[in-house]
Amino acid sequence: MTDDYSGVSGMQHEEALLFEHAHEAATPISLPGIDAELPDALNGFRRSRQAGIPGLSEPESVRHFVRLSQWNHSIETGFYPLGSCTMKYNPRVNEQLARLPGLAQLHPDQPEESVQGVLELLYELQQWLGEITGLAHVTLTPAAGAHGELAGIMMIRAYHDARGDRRRRTVLVPDSAHGTNPASAALAGMQTIEIKSAANGRIDLDELRSRLNDEVAALMLTNPNTTGMFESDIAEICRLVHEAGGLVYGDGANLNALVGVARPGDMGIDCLHINVHKTFSTPHGGGGPGTGPVAVNDTLAPFLPVPKLVRENNTIRIVHRDERSIGSIFGSIGQTGVLLRATAYIAAFGRDALHRIAEDAVLNANYILARLKDAYHVPFPGLCKHECLLTDEKQERHGVKTLDIAKRLIDLGFHPMTVYFPLIVHGAMLIEPTESESRETIDRFCDAMLEIARQCEAGDTEALHQAPLMPIRRRLDETLAARKPVLVWPED
Amino acid sequence: MLDRIGVDSIRDLFADIPADFHLQPGSLKLPRALHEAGIVRKFTRAAAANRHAGDTRCFLGGGTYHHFVPAVVDYVISRGEFLTAYTPYQPEIAQGTLQALFEFQTMIARLTGMEVANASMYDAATGVAEAALMARRITRRQRVVMAGSVNSRYRDVTRNYLARLDGETVEVPCAKFATDPDAVIAALDGDTACVIIQFPDFHGHVFDVAPLRAACDARGILLVIAFSDAALFGELTPPGELGADIAVGSGQSLGVPMGFGGPHIGLFACRQKFVRQMPGRVCGMTRDRDGKRGFVLTLSTREQHIRREKATSNICSNQGLMCTANATYLSLMGDQGLAAVARRSIAALARLTGHLPAGVEAAAGARAHETVLSFADRETRDRFLAIALQRDIFAGIPLEHFEPDTEPRHLLVSTTEMIEAGDIDDYHAALQEALL
Amino acid sequence: MSIPADLKYTKEHEWVRLEDDIATLGISDHAQEALGDIVFVELPEIGRRIAPGEAFAVVESVKAVSDVYAPVGGEIIEVNELLESEPEKINTDPYGAGWIARVKTDGSSAELLDEAAYTLFLEE
Predict the structure, then answer these.
(1) Could you tell me the residue range of the domain that residue C96 belongs to?
(2) C64/B300 Cβ within 8 A
(3) Pick from A109, B257, C45, C96: CA 20 to 30 A from residue A318's CA?
(4) Three-state secondary-structure class, residue A91
(5) What is this model's ipTM?
(6) Residue B83 is part of which domain span?
(7) How many CA atoms within 13 Å lie on the side-chain side of A458?
């Protein structure tokens, strides 16, 4: 059967650590500039011994890192259905554009008149994100989604404080939320209270009502939520929170389900961060850089962080100081290179086609759900949005857990889905195909999942427990790593 | 596909979104869709409207530096396997990213002279703020002291991160564009969690840290040393040798383009005994089922996805790809190359300040590759900037951009190995013309 | 599942061994099994006063963190430093080498269950 899937095989090179190559390049790299000894005044400030950075020749270095790269799975290698991560294809033209010297070689403190071209592109993105979210005022500065959350909660706190309402120090967070939500609220000096989800995986309105009082600053909400379901009561949820004097923070991690189809701002959400490395296709880079612009309504606009981009006549200016602003949260105006890729991505869709992103993403996810819903337990039946949630309940009867299913998928040539998140269901498997996958790929993935389910039913589970067997490494001992942390290679 | 799902149209899939909120397709106020060629033209035009360091002479610093980046660095991080992978949560199929992270952590620890390093922060400014928070956790004290000679952007962000939490944050005023360790020591007390200095400081000043280290020891205070250009430690005393408990700064100089403010990378290193209080992801070495060496993300219980509101930080996405860029850069440079980068960066500034015409003055004291030039008045300074720019020279950053309370007649000037002798001759010539 | 008869237990799955006014504290076999491989134990400071029900230590596995609550009140007089290098002792010997701390009790106590009651509690 395996032959039907995109299994991996062939040459796999072992590759030593850089430090094990341990030879200084015969000729050090040639450099521009002025070759001179350290000035006398600095003689007392030399390092006492060399750092121990190995110098490799160019071909050695290239081969080292190319070999390492081949041990990675990536979107360009294959399907990557990580729920809540929106691993869509990253258009190559965006890489080319972000590297144009006139964009990549700009110092952030050049005179404004010498950087009007890049400022124009950033300002445009700011306006577009405001239009797409229905929240007109945007900061591009936050460096990642969690950083955007921090900025958003700081703004909400500043808003309450400005009204003299300094008791509001509580943030309500559903138990299905990303861990960043409570962590960001805590960093902004707020207490968090967890809201238990209802049996259908959505926010329990009675539970919400019982938690609302005059100490609540905000509800943090992900919609669609992390079970992949849309919170259909969103208007009522926002009304309840607003009536109680609070604001609604939207975690935009799942914006891919809505983009071009509906706008969080229209639903009553006051403030939303956007993960451009999800919805707007900037590459994840093995963990980052991301970027998390925050869009807010008029209520929160005065509190946006500095620096701000404003248009004055035909010039874009960077405003560094503003009395009501929450202040500075990052060392520059933002991660420009990431933002420019998002600008290019949105420009490619424009008003004509932006909605097709969400439509195709939701279509793909529902198709997977339809194909797998009989073989796997679906904790919350019904339509999903851009991702679908399954559990290992049926397979567990045969001694197979979510982790085994995930590892077996690797041997069958697919990156696993997100596992064990959200925390509110046991053995969660959260599958997000994104819009950029073909039906052919999705069918192959579903075939693999169905084959795994059949193997479980047949009691043929040895391959599942042994998996993965195909990659360069098998299951790794995380206990050993955590008990005796070795974070650096010891010196000779 | 719709048949299989059991709906008639794609829009039926959105039936759970109240009808009031459905947008008419095409109704957003966005431009029409552009084809690829159109996007390339749009961006090429925008790029052409900027002046950039690629064909000018860049004397701008302040935390972002125009160093040489070998072509290999961009090639490696352009590879789809590094570029389009997610956080390495499935380690068996992410050993490439993980080994690169382990190599990165090792080289950052070695370069900074520290015992361990994490897998990056967003940037130096947020890294300094995280260092202050970490020191508060370790010492269970709340007071934070910062030297006024730390980059104002690092201070702004740190002050802002701490502003909503209990405890005092103290900034020691800076005079003469230099760090006065005695003034910093005078601000310490028994309630102080940490003191944050920058080395070399924001104005490029290098100074004796030993008295401050001793003062910290006497009171159980952690010493946080910030830095803005990691390449300098190829030659200069690194934070670890200066006695830092936490070293935090920018890795932009190590193979990352200036990029109009990002993406850059925050480096974060500390003593081994503090790792469980460290923010951010770390990669650790382990073995697989067959006993082969491998790498995983570890110490995850510190992080937000497990500890939620009690996490050491809220950081999730970091600057992963820039770690790979730093690792590639460092492997090409080696100790010798890095030392040469540091020496050349410093030598260029020595040459620049060694022959200044009358009417402009460089800050006193030992400087690395950055200093402050002072003019009689704003008019003269700005005349010089304009003349220099006509000659394709970005001659410096008006200091009031960073420090708004300073008189508007100073210029922060920085050099790297990208500055050639002829560039400095041209710089001097522009100065002479402006000062006539 | 081991539940020694000479110990008392809490509903948070700590155990306590009382010998005069000295109490030895740890987590139960059930607790260690639920957590999985223990990788780190954050021990309290000697001399710290704790109240019944107060979190006084933290036990971590690879993917979970659990506070340890005091079954009795008093002053910490000794901690099991072996756990700093060998936290896995909690997995292999939760009632012996895996003890966490000793407390000089002040007589205060949380609700404690005997073997039979704890067994019943676990079955529920």
Answers:
(1) 9-108
(2) no
(3) B257
(4) coil
(5) 0.97
(6) 71-330
(7) 11
